[in-house]
Amino acid sequence: MAKEKKASLFLNGEIEDVDQIKSKFDKENYDIVIGVDGGANHLQRIGAVPDYIVGDLDSIDKESLTFFIEKGTEFKKYPSKKNETDTELAIWLARDLGAQSIDLYGALGGRIDHEIANIHLLYYIIKRGLNPRILDKNRDLYIVGKDPLEISGKAGDLISLIPLYGDAKGVTLGGLEYPLEKYDMEFSKPRGISNVMIGQKCSISLEEGYLLVIKNEL
C-alpha cells in the first residue's frame, strides 16, 4: 500500500512557541511544505525551507523573501484583489501535488475572524476528500465526518467535541473517560466539552454530520 502523501501549510497566524512547533513539524516528515504568504516567516524561524510560497506576498518579510529566493523555493504570486484567499490557493496546490492529508500551522491566534475562518477550512478540506488537521502549541484540531478518527496522545489529555453545521448523529467514543455509543449530539449544546483520554489512543466516529475535535495536551 502506497504511503499517504502529506502536506504542511504555514499560515500567518500566531506561533508563540517556535521550538514546540518545530518539534511537531520535524516529526511529521512532510512530502510537501508550503508557506502561505507571511506564514513563510514562521518557516524561516524554525529553519525549514518550503517547496512553494503562495500569495500576493504582501506580508512576507523582506529578509525571508530574499532567503527563500536564494534557497530555490518556487513562488506562486497572485494579485491581492481576488476571490480566493491565499490559503485556499495553497490548499488547491497541495491537492494538485497529490497530497492526501494537509496540516495547517499558524492557523490560530491573531484576528478572531481569521481564526474562525481557518477552523472552517477543516470542513473545506475534508469535503474535497483530504484529511486535515490544525496543529498548534498545546492543541490539535481535527474534523470527523463519515470516516472514523483515531487520535494519539496520553492519559489526561482533554478531548472536546463540537457539532458543526447541524446535529452530529450516532456519535461513538472509545478510549475516553466518558464513552458514548450512537449518541446524538445537538448542534449548539456544549455536551462534548472536556472529555478525558484514559490511555494513549481514543476513537471517534459518527453516522451523520460533522464534529470539530479539539485535543488539549496537558
TrEMBL record:
Residues 153-212 form the Thiamin pyrophosphokinase thiamin-binding domain. Gene3D superfamilies: Thiamin pyrophosphokinase, catalytic domain. The keyword Kinase applies. It is an enzyme of class 2 (transferase). Its EC number is 2.7.6.2. One of its GO terms (biological process) is thiamine metabolic process. SMART domains: TPK_B1_binding. InterPro entries: Thi_PPkinase, Thiamin_PyroPKinase_B1-bd, TPK, TPK_B1-bd_sf, TPK_catalytic, TPK_catalytic_sf. It comes from the Bacteria. Pfam families: TPK_B1_binding, TPK_catalytic. GO terms for molecular function: ATP binding; kinase activity; thiamine binding; thiamine diphosphokinase activity. Keywords: ATP-binding, Kinase, Nucleotide-binding, Transferase. NCBIfam families: thi_PPkinase. PANTHER family: THIAMINE PYROPHOSPHOKINASE. This is Thiamine diphosphokinase. It comes from Peptostreptococcus anaerobius 653-L.
